[in-house]
Amino acid sequence: MPTERLLMTGEDMRRVISRIAHEIVERNRGADGLVLVGLQRRGVPLAKWLASAIQAFEDVEVPVGALDTNLYRDDLTSRRQPMLRPTTLPVDVDDKVVVLVDDVLYTGRTARAALNALMDLGRPTQVQLAVMVDRGHRELPIRADYVGKNVPTAPDEQVRVRVDDFDSVDEVVLVVEREVPA
Amino acid sequence: MSAPLLIRNARLIDPSDGSDAVGDLLIKDGVIARRGSANGSVPDGTRVVDGTGMVVAPGFIDLHAHLREPGGEDKETIATGTAAGARGGFTTLCCMPNTTPTIDSATVVEFIARQAADAGSIRVLPFGAVSRGRSGVELTDMEELARAGAVGFTDDGNPVATGHLMQMALLYAGQLGLPVMDHCEDHSITRAHSTGSGQGLGVNEGWVASRLGLAGYPSAAEESIVARDIALLELAGGALHIAHLSTAGGIAHVRRAKERGLRVTAEATPHHLTMTEAWVLGAHGRGSPDEALGAASYETRAKVSPPLRAETDRQALVEALADGTVDAVATDHAPHTFADKAVPFDEATVGLSVLETALGSLMGLVHGGALDLPTLVQRLTAGPASVLGERYADLATLRKGTPADVVLFDPDESWVVDAASFASKGKNTPLDGETLVGRVKLTVAGGEIAFDGLAS
Amino acid sequence: MTTRAPVEAAPGTSVAPRRHVLDLDDFSASEIHVLLDSAEAMREVLGRSIKKVPSLRGKVVVTLFLEPSTRTRVSFEQAGKMLSADVINVGETGSSAEKGESLLNTALTLQAMRADLIVLRHPHSGAPYFLARHLTSTAVVNAGDGMHAHPTQALLDLMTMRRHLGSLEGAKVVIVGDVLHSRVARSNAFGLAASGASVVLCGPPTMMPLDLLRPGGTPSLPNVTLEPDLDAAIEDADVVMTLRLQAERQAAGMLPSLREYTRRWQVNEARMSRAKPGALLMHPGPMNEGVEIASSLAHGGSSQIEEQVTNGVALRMALLYQLLTGTEERP
Hints:
The complex is a heterotrimer.
Chain A: E1 3-8, H1 10-27, E2 34-39, H2 43-58, E3 64-67, E4 97-105, H3 109-121, E5 126-134, E6 146-150, E7 157-162, H4 164-167, E8 171-176
Parallel strand pairs in A: 2-3, 2-4, 4-5, 5-6
Antiparallel strand pairs in A: 1-8, 7-8
Chain B: E1 5-14, E2 19-28, E3 31-36, E4 47-50, E5 55-58, E6 60-65, H1 78-87, E7 90-95, H2 106-119, E8 123-126, H3 142-148, E9 153-154, H4 163-176, E10 180-182, H5 187-190, H6 207-212, H7 219-236, E11 240-242, H8 248-259, E12 264-268, H9 270-274, H10 311-323, E13 328-329, H11 338-341, H12 358-367, H13 373-380, H14 382-388, E14 406-416, E15 435-445, E16 448-452
Parallel strand pairs in B: 1-4, 1-5, 6-7, 7-8, 9-10, 10-11, 11-12, 12-13
Antiparallel strand pairs in B: 1-2, 2-3, 5-14, 14-15, 15-16
Helix pairs in contact in B: 1-2, 2-3, 4-7, 7-8, 8-10
Chain C: H1 29-46, E1 60-65, H2 71-82, E2 86-90, H3 103-112, E3 117-122, H4 127-134, E4 139-145, H5 151-165, E5 172-176, H6 183-194, E6 198-202, H7 210-213, E7 224-226, H8 230-233, E8 239-242, H9 248-251, H10 258-265, H11 269-272, E9 280-282, H12 295-298, H13 305-324
Parallel strand pairs in C: 1-2, 1-3, 3-4, 5-6, 5-8, 6-7, 8-9
Helix pairs in contact in C: 1-5, 1-13, 2-13, 5-6, 5-13
C-alpha cells in the first residue's frame, strides 16, 4: 500500500506563490514584458495563481499561456501514452521574458522539452523556470530560477502537487510505494 | 496382391441390403471373401484386425473432387489427391474437368487413367466437360469421352452457360445414359458486383457479407439455375445431377421434381452440411454480429462457391440429406496453395480441401442426432453410386464376391485437424485446429491397402 | 478476436495502446473522445508558422496506396511529416505490385525494412485485416478498404461534428446516397453509435445492404434506421452527410438515371432547410457537384467540407502519434 506524507498545505503553497511572485518581479525589475507559461497540466493553474499574485501587488495583468510538452518528449516509446493537451499562448513570445511554470522539477526532461517547444513558437529574450517542488535527481544540466520547496527524495518516491482545479484540494504530498516503518 | 485381411467383431453397415450387424469381414484376392460369422477357416498369412467398436462400410465414393491434374499440379496431383482420398476413407473419386487442358478430349481422360494407375491407390473416374474448353458454346465429343472412361459431364466451376446448351447436353448425354452435373450459379447475379479480382464471390448474401463489406452471393443465384435445369430436364429428358446444393430454395425445387418422378439427383458437401456463413468471420464459426472484427476475420479458407450459407439453409440441407432429397455427400474437394489464399478475401480462390476431414465433419451430424449412421453411410456409398448408374453398384456393397472397396472407421475417435499433415497438397481448410470425432482407420481399394491408420 | 478489446477509460486519462486501426467497431466512446482531444491539440501545431514537432523522429511510416487517392494519401503524408516521421509513399505504379508481387510479400518486405507503420489503401475489403494477421512488428492503419471501412475518415467526421455540436450524444446524423458501397458510411455508423448519435440512412434501395432492408434479419450495422424519402429523413437533422455517387453504378444497372437520382436524393437548399437551423453539411469528397450535392451548397455557409480536410490532417497526426508512441506501461 502506498503511503502519503504531507509536505505542504494549501496555506504553505499560497505563501510560496506569493514569495515567488515577488522574486519574479524583483529579478525582472517589474512585470512588463513578462509572460507566464504553465506546463500542462498542473503548471497551468500554478501559472494563473502566480499571475493573480503579481496583479495583487503590482497591478499588472501578466499574460498566462499553456504549453504541452508531450510532442517534444524523448521518452515516449518507453512509457504509457500521455494525453495531449492544448498549447495556447495569448501573446507572441518574441522579445518577451517567459517564465515557465511547473509543479515538480525532477529529471529535467520536461523542462528540456518545454524549452524546445517554446523555441518552435517564438524567440523570447530570456526563459526562466519556476517550480513548486524541486525533488532532485537531475539527468540534464537544468536548474530552476524559482523554487517553492526543495524536497530530498528517493527515486521510488513520488511528489504529487495537487491543485484545486483538478484535485479539489491544494496540497503537496510525498507518496511512498514501499512500507514505511512506523 | 496384399495378404488376406480379416476384420473381426466390427459393426458392418451395408447399404446395398440394409444390413447393420456386428460381425467379421474377410478380404482375399481383391474381393470380399466372407462376411458375417466368426466361423470359418482363416487362410495362412491373414492379417487380423480387431474391429471392436469400429464400423466397416463400403469405401466412400466422391462424385466431386478437383484433383487439379493436368495443369494445376502446384495445388494437387492425382497421386496426392488419391492419397488424401484414401486417408478420408474414399475408394472412388470422380474428378472434375476444370483442368488445363480441360477434360474435353479422350486424350486427357486417358492421361488421367494412366496417372491414377501409376499412383496405384484408389479409383479415379473422370467427369468430362459439357462444352469444349468449358467455354459454354459447343458440346464436347461426349460419346468419345464416355468410351474413354468419362462417367458424366459437367462444366463445374461454371454453370452450364445457357438454357439451350443445357437442353442439348441433357438430350445428348441422356442417350448415352450419363448424367449432366451442373454447378448452379446465375452469373448475371454473382458477377454484377465485380470486384475486379477475377475470382468468384465466396460469401453468402446476408449479415456477414454486409458486415465485412463484401459483395454477397444470394441464394437466388443458385435457386434460379436449379429451377431452370429442372424445367429443361422435363423438356429434354436425360439425367440431371445438381452439384453442391446449398440453399433451402434449391432443395425445395429438387424435392418437388423428385416427387414428380423426374430423374434429378443432388449432392451436398460436408462443409455446407456442417458450417455456416459465420465461418467467414474467422473464429471457427463462433463470431457474432455484436463483436468487433479482428485480424482473423475475412477467413479466406472459408471462401467457397457456392458460399457457406445461413443456419436455416444448413438445417434444410441436413434434413434433405436425411430424407433422401439429397442423394449423396460429395466433397467438392478444392485444394489450393498457400499463396492462393494468402491474399485479401476478394482475390482469394474459392474452395476447401475436404477429403481428409469429410467423415469427421459428417460424424458431427450423427453424434448430434441429426442423422443416423446407416443413412450417412448410404449417402457416402450407394447414394453416389446410384448417380453414376447401375454398373457402379458393386462399388457400394459388402456382398461376397464384389470388389473389396472397404473402409474401417472409428466413429468415436476424437482427433485434432492438422492441415500441415494432410496428404493433400491443399492445406486450405478453416477446420485446421478443430477437434472432430470420427476417424478413418483403414481403407482398402480393390483388395489393396490404400491407407493404414491403425498403427498411429 | 479483436485487435484490442475496447477499454473504458475515464475521460482525461490515457488509454492503453492499440496496435492497429482497422475500423471503428472496436473503439469505445472514451477512446474516440481521447483521440479527438489529441487531434484538437494537433490543430494548434497545424496553425503554427513552423508546422513541425519532433515526436516521431526516427519512425518510418509507409503509405501503401493500391487504389488511386490523392487527398487521403497526402493527408497521411503531411501528418507524418509534421510529426517528423520519415514518410515513404508506395503507389500502384512503379511498385512491385505492378510486377505482380503479392500484397503479403510487399508488406513483409516493408516490415523487414523496419517500417513502423503501414497506411494501407486497397480496393478489396479486408486487406488491412489480412496484413494485420501476417505482420508481427509493423502497425497497420486502414486508409480505406474496398467497400468495407474508412476509419480515419469517420474519425475526422466525428471530430468535425463534435467541434460544432459540442457533443454527439443524441445527435441525428443523416447519411445519404450509395450506402451499399460506402466504406465511409459503414465506419461512421460504428463511430456514431459508440458516441451516442443516431444514424438515418437514406438512398436508393438498390444501394442499401439487403440485410438492412430485410425485416427481422440480423443487422450488420448498429443503431441505424432507414428512411428512403430524403425530405422525411432530413427532418430535424443535426448533420447531413452526402456520399459520392460513382458514375459506374448507373452502367451497372443500379440507377435509372442521374437525373432521377438527383431529383430524389440530391441534397439541396430546400432540403437542407428541413434540417435543424445551422445543421452541418458534410461530404467525404471528392464531390460530384450537381449530383449528390447542389453546387450552391457545396461552397455555402453550412458546408464543412474544407474543414473536414483540415481536421483530417490533425486527426491523422493524433492517430500516428498514438500508435507510434507509448507502447509500454511505465515501470
